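Private note to self, pasted from the team thread so I don't lose it. Backbone tokens:
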């Protein structure tokens, strides 16, 4: 049974930084496509960033480009999201997701597995 366990959320003032981590439990191989999503109250879930393990290629939502960095540690089977220059509009529940069906495409929003989420709150 594959599980994704997020950590690293919290509260920070605008301009601050947080680092989210996601551990892949129950799967010893490298996950092909992993991503971070977020959902704010009253809003739809949106993809924030994704990474394809085949060539370490990454993609980002325009709203976070230049501020967030997604990375994958294949040896530890973990996913990270470094978030800098945080803004109040980044406040949301952040979810780690894994897809085993091949490379990432930005239009793909259906992933095989999801974490429980970790809350990020940015105050002004």
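Design output:
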């Amino acid at each position: 049974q594959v599980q994704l366990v997020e950590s690293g959320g919290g509260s920070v003032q605008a301009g601050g930084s947080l680092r989210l981590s996601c551990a892949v439990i129950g799967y010893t191989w490298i996950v092909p496509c992993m991503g971070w999503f977020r959902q704010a109250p009253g809003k739809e879930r949106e993809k924030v960033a994704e990474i394809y393990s085949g060539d370490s290629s990454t993609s980002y939502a325009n709203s976070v480009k230049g501020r967030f960095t997604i990375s994958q540690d294949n040896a530890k089977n973990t996913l990270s999201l470094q978030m800098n220059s945080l803004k109040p509009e980044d406040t949301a529940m952040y979810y780690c997701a894994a897809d085993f069906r091949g490379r990432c495409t930005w239009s793909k929003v259906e992933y095989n597995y999801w974490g429980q989420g970790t809350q990020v709150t940015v105050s002004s």
